[in-house]
Amino acid sequence: MAKDKWEKRLIKWRRHLHRYPELSFEEKQTTAYIIEQIKGLPGVSIQWGRDQIGLDTGVIVTIGGGESPIIGLRADIDALPIREETKATYQSCHTGVMHACGHDGHTAMLLGAVHFLSSLFEANLLNGTVKCLFQPAEETEDQFGKTGAQYVLNSGAFDEVEACLALHLDPDIPIGEVKLKAGVAMANVDTFTVVINGTGGHGAYPEQSIDPVYLSSLILPYLYSLPSRQISALEPAVLSVCQITGGASSNVIPSEVTIRGTMRTYSEKARSRLSSELEKGLRQIQTLGGSYQLQLHHGEPALINDPGIVEVFSKAIRLVDPNVVIHSEAYGLGGEDFSHFTKKIPGAMMFLGAADWSKQKTSLHQPSFCFDERALEMGTHTLVKAVLLLMKKGGIEGGT
Predict the structure, then answer these.
(1) Residue 370 among known ligand-binding residues
(2) What are the residue boundaries of the Peptidase M20 dimerisation domain, all occurrences included (predicted)?
(3) According to the annotation, is 365 in a ligand binding site?
């Protein structure tokens, strides 16, 4: 297929997915669309359904006959509860739901990789097996506190995978630049909910109540101080309070206030310290006559890129673009549930420059999110080159 026709196909896939986004665990039409684009390809087998991949949505596409090495490629397919403001001709048809993190692009790139790898298999040029996971529910946990990656791993569908790779579009750097770092690249993700209880009462007679709003005002400075006062300045750590609710009237002191937020760290040491100090500080509420309940949830672990896989990724992107600029720096304190894979399998995620500076500057999870679609072809070819390099090695030389 000619280069311009191939690029048009990738853009067509991406724009269809962008127009019809679906939230985590609800990606039924997305799953059906993916299957439609790949069924019947040479050397391809398809797994889907809870009994095969652990979830009702999502797809695993296997190219090859099961021979080692077995390489895993992963793209996330879910969207976010955001009302789109791009005014693109292919803007979301579902009000309040948007692909604002590039998952439509990730899916299109992996669809492209499946087609390329299938053609290599047909030409007897694929010396191994590739499992391509179109993964649901990266963005949101379910009622059991799990994301899509955990369900796939628990299903056993990736048990034989020897190395895994993923791409993430980056709207902060342009085409021709990537972020790729061995070791810790993204954060541990923890969330907390604190319910502060008092007795409530009339706003005119605060002395007759134990005011949970007042108690909250005392505890907030302590919460904000935790990263800077309890964690070394050399350790990345963030605590953000993102929601405070309480009260229903201007003259009634409520009986409780709820505070919700998130904590992000790179090391397990900092993660543990923040958690213990959070609990310690909340005890101040009891000395002032109130009470509290704390729910602390440990979400995704830090994303740790395997040095061996990072080296392969680096070689692959340079084969696609010899002039590529590689920034060996951490990707920030965001979280990625691909980290569940890299915790068990040697793997790496690369951030692929895709800033579209012809439009307004934007970033991930914003209503104006967009990206330069030229990144799609670069990403597809990089995934295929990385697979071929790993297969050429005859095995996986990982180990962090």
Answers:
(1) no
(2) 189-284
(3) yes
